[in-house]
Amino acid sequence: MRGASMWSCWGFLVCFLAASASASRGREWAHHGASMFADLTPRELKAVRDYLHAQKELGLTLAKEKVLKKNSILLIELHVPRKHEALRALDRGQAKPQRQARVVVQFGDQAQPNITEYIVSPLPYPTTYEVKTFKGGRPILFESRPITSAEYHHLLKVLEKVEMKARRLLHESTGFAGMVGVSDCGDRCLTFSDIAPRGLAPGERRTWIMLQKFVEGYFIHPVGFELLVNHRDLDPEKWAVEKVWYNGQYFDSVEELMEKYDQGTIKKHKLPEHDPTDLYSTFVPRGHSNMASDIHGPKLVEPQGPRYHVDGNFVEYAGWSFAFRVRSSAGLQIFDLRFNGERVAYEVSLQEAIAFYSGDTPAAMQTKYIDAGWAMGTSDYELAPGIDCPEIATFQDMYHYYDTDKPVRFRNALCIFEMTTAMPLRRHFNSDFKGGYNFFAGLENHVLVLRTTSTVYNYDYIWDFYFYQNGVMEARVSATGYIHATFFTPNGLNYGTKVYSYVLGNLHTHLIHYKVDLDIAGRENSFESMELKFVNVSNPWSPGHTIQQSLLAKKQHETERSAAFRFGKKFPRYLHFYNPKQENRWGHKKGYRIQFNSHGHSVLPKGWKEENGISWARYPLAVTRHKDSEATSSSMYTQNNPWEPLVSFEDYIRNNENITEQDLVAWVTVGFLHVPHSEDIPNTATPGNAVGFFLRPFNFFDEDPSLSSRSTIIVRPGKEGTPTIQRWTPEVIGHCVTDKPFTYNGTYAGV
Questions:
Q1: What are the boundaries of each domain within the chain?
Q2: Which CATH class is domain 149-263?
Q3: pLDDT of 82-113, one tens digit each?
């Protein structure tokens, strides 16, 4: 028996050491592979630029040249490796695939202008480039390209000419005249907002432009003057103003407007006298303060320093590990998400953000912003310590190459920090029902936050990933910034809210799309939804009576179409992704579920013109089989050609493939309706404007993995009324936290 016992001990030790070695090796491989997903460095970006400029057949010139008839680089960003290639490095420790760049080139100086994408490799010393193709061999329509600074330069010249023709009208109507940047107009200049999509059909490039006062927060200072500019031709001298809208009236030209204005045959308006000391759009405090101004509010502290580890783009925290990047054309992404060494998801990434508006003015009714078309990822400007992120956060710079001739550094554009939620992760007070207690136990809720922002013109999106100690991950977006406002008309109240004497805040819907490539205990996953249905059963302990109760009803979704849930239809409450071949200790299939925090809805009827470009927005959830050819749900070309999109998400589910025991991708849409209101002045606040989703373990573990946290405190009654406090971490006492030790009484009695 002693021999058997000894053999058992040795066996256990061997297994333990093998498991430890495996965990160590897994961590090493995850760290080794993280750099595959790191954004291109300035050195790599410059190397790609220099290599392509050296290829004489491309005929590339500088992007900043003001001519439009040129061949130039629009975008350089990382080209992510194919999944199976990346997994060889992540799961086997094999060599990482060579780094590659995705490059977007505008060929304007050709007989047939076009947009071509290239894959350039290997980095950092490129030697080859090849054309990147799209599903179905779709070409990239030249008119679908994002607008550039060179094109804005010429648009501003058009506006300058328009302003000069209509200067008297503008000055008499608004008290402002002259375009900022081109006129000597002092503090009474005008600026503009341009609207997209740019036209009503493929191949057009016609933009509605709205004039505004150039003051702090100019987004909510429309002046009641809008114009439609056709700028399709690459020769700006051939651009033309096709329509003008003034105070609710349409005109075919500026000349027609001015003629009728001088004749007094149109409705004129005059804005209230501008008072720069009473600017309703400013952040400068006004009104009575209800808080002492000489006392700071609470701040986060790290008594012994950070408990997370960051190495480049690789992060570890409380059992979590992941790699991250900020894709220039779309935004924040995480890869190889693991908890306690087990992969939960291969990729969780932002794909697209849209804001579709309604209104009475032409600019308002045309506004359908599709933000990847504005290179949403490059709008990650500097984060302010103490406001955007806690002062204790780890900040990182981001580098982008978009509409430029050299990499641009965005200082402190991303932050990582741990925080307390001021809410217990778990707790219980166990009463003895006699005025005392048997025990109290609780665990403080700390989370790691990965954060960046996108300020896409007027709106500021705050992008977060939260990592909880119990294996839960949350994706959250919070909206703030200025509302998109247009000139007030009485009919405008059908499309929004009056927020100033001549300003309408236009109603709109925000929708955000995420890709969630789940690998639950492996790649061969299945998907089921769960709902409740009422059942009537005989009462076993009281014959002749029945009991109504809820029964758990599971539905296996075997095809992509069956797992594409439309907005407006009944949506299951439990969405369960699991591995049919892996079980936990209790015989349940190891799984995770997606839980929504959203009240998004469709923005247009299915198949209606621009809706074709955002077919992903038909579904709060759609599940497809993973394909490297279906890497994204949108593209930067959709904004200016939503009618015939280069990337059509509907194609991903059209073939209705089987999704049982397959590598699955969940495509998640969250959002909210925003009807502006008085409290959106000066700008929108974040409370109530945050949506997202959770990834929550569902029988993935044998018990709550936060049990491993040593931050738990247990209190039991001691002798002579002195409680016994059990803790596994040292007590922190100091002026930065508290000057009092932890105490607990637990009794309750009448007074």
A1: 22-132, 149-263, 323-707
A2: alpha beta
A3: 999 999 999 999 999 999 999 999 999 999 99
